[in-house]
Write a structure and sequence with these properties.
By secondary structure, this protein is α/β, with parallel strands linked by helices. It contains seven helices and seven strands. The chain has one domain: Rossmann fold.
Length: 216
């Protein structure tokens, strides 16, 4: 599940002919990873989608369908945040990210990716300025197509409560009733982390966001 082949996933995405005018320092691309389709809604692998959906709903903002994903815009303290839910499916997330980074003309430090993580217990969240993919297909494709691992990410733990050979069914399985009840608080924590990231910068944001166990 969490492996990839460059020859399959490395095909370049079309590059926009012109970039939208924007101030690179005051605009950010916030990417929530997941898989499109009703059959994937509410699954562990769609934690990134869940966070952006909760944020858009709380902000009375709607997503519009654009190339390679659904996009919503939120203004916060003089910044414009572009929320992106890629429509490329998880393993090709990099196509959407690269396209929108190019379209918006953003520097790498203005990218933040939100994803699930098998290596963290459920309820644990971590922010990093860069790092390895941890075997996550979406992060691996993003790293491949951007050519760097130097982009920020917030990882939401989903645990690893599965037997040998059950990883795919686990990550594509639904959250438990107890976990669904915990999601609003988790989403709020991640949203607060994103707001800190775009206002005070990643270092100060991490100092607050990654305190103690990082659990909600």
């Amino acid at each position: 599940m969490f492996s990839f082949l460059k020859k399959l996933f490395g095909a370049p995405a079309p590059v926009p002919e012109t970039a939208e005018p924007c101030d690179p320092g005051m605009n950010y691309l916030i990417v929530g990873l997941g898989n499109i389709g009703a059959e994937y809604a509410g699954t562990r692998h769609n934690m990134g989608f869940m966070v952006l959906d909760a944020w858009a709903q709380a902000s009375n903002t709607v997503f519009r369908t654009e190339r390679y994903g659904d996009v919503a815009e939120i203004s916060f303290k003089g910044r414009k945040l572009y929320l992106l839910k890629p429509s490329t499916y998880m393993n090709l997330s990099g196509k959407a990210v690269r396209y929108w980074m190019t379209k918006l003309g953003l520097p790498m430090e203005n990218l933040l990716v939100i994803c699930d993580d098998l290596n963290l217990p459920f309820g644990t969240v971590r922010m990093r300025k860069k790092g390895s993919t941890g075997g996550h297909n979406g992060l691996e494709n993003i790293q491949l197509l951007l050519g760097t691992q130097d982009y920020a990410r917030i990882r939401l733990g989903i645990g690893n409560d599965f037997s040998t050979g059950g990883q795919i069914d686990f990550v594509l399985g639904p959250l438990s009733a107890e976990q669904r009840e915990a999601m609003p608080a988790l989403c709020d924590k991640v949203i607060d982390g994103v707001k800190a990231f775009v206002t005070v910068g990643p270092d100060r944001a991490m100092n607050t966001f990654n305190t103690k166990s990082g659990k909600v």
